[in-house]
TrEMBL record:
InterPro entries reported for this sequence: A_deaminase_dom (IPR001365), ADE (IPR028892), Ado/ade_deaminase (IPR006330), Metal_Hydrolase (IPR032466)
Cofactor: how bound: Binds 1 zinc ion per subunit.
Name of the protein this chain belongs to: Adenine deaminase
Cofactor(s) of this protein: Zn(2+)
Keywords: Hydrolase, Metal-binding, Nucleotide metabolism, Zinc
Domain Adenosine deaminase intervals: 9-311
Site annotation Important for catalytic activity: residues: 218
Enzyme Commission designation: 3.5.4.2
GO biological process, one term: nucleotide metabolic process
Xref: Pfam families: A_deaminase
GO MF entries: adenine deaminase activity; zinc ion binding
Amino acid sequence: MYDWLNALPKAELHLHLEGTLEPELMFMLAERHGVRLPFADVEALRQAYSFNNLQEFLDLYYQGADVLRTEQDFYDLTWAYLLKCKEQNVVHTEPFFDPQTHTDRGIPFEVVLNGITQALKDGEQKLGIKSGLILSFLRHLSEEEAFKTFEQALPFRDAFVAVGLDSSEVGHPPSKFKRVFDRARSEGFAAVAHAGEEGPPSYIWEALDLLNVVRIDHGVRAVEDERLMHRLIDQQIPLTVCPLSNTKLRVFDDMSQHNILTLLERGVKVTVNSDDPAYFGGYVTENFAALHESLGMTEAQAKRLAQNSLDARLVI
Ligand code: HPA
Ligand code: ZN
């Protein structure tokens, strides 16, 4: 089944480039820059990847990103991910990057963006993988800081297709970012947002009604609100679900508890994604394989999930 799932053509719509930083590459970049990591070796770092919630993961994720410093680093990071896409027949990807994670430690916005966009261009030319980059705001920071980031990005408007919202969810509802999302949409960008991962269904309502998002990232807590379920089904609003992420961050205790197939069978437009594959134990195929192993996902269901991912692309 793994090989069959791997060969299925699919799109990835929920992937943080910073979350593709494999321990081996982290050590290589640390050496490149003479940085000492607080882990003895790759194995010790992998051992640290055990989380009780989103915040515990984010603390390590932001710390790990510190080795990303030059255009070449961002190129190498993105290229390694694209090679994985090729290996797993991900024919299209719409990755996020978090500019504030880098600009706040003194890395110029252009350094980050140039490295990523050059790799994405090469990915299309040399590997045939299409992409659309999403600029994601960190929701634990202020809306004013998001505005600053957006203004910094505007001169490079052709390099990205949408804005997103990620980082610590609870306590930072979508409503906090209504004005900056209005601004981004007025400039012609699409909007997506993480909502209903750890946060309540009301955050999904806010993402839809206040931020006017065209997709919800995660969204698995929608099942707690029947009226919201009807909205998602009636309007066929895609959810970019990340099964391995959800179990690693304890949104669900075990993969056997995951609700993605229930959502699928109720008619919600769910997709399968890897979120932060270097931290959560697998790329897209591993996520599909886990659904087969733990939930008995059939080939027919896998085909529908893959087709949903192609249908839910922003960039065609
Ligand atoms: N949720 C919120 N923020 C994130 C995530 C996530 O799953 N991954 C990287 N940043
Ligand atoms: Zn995410």
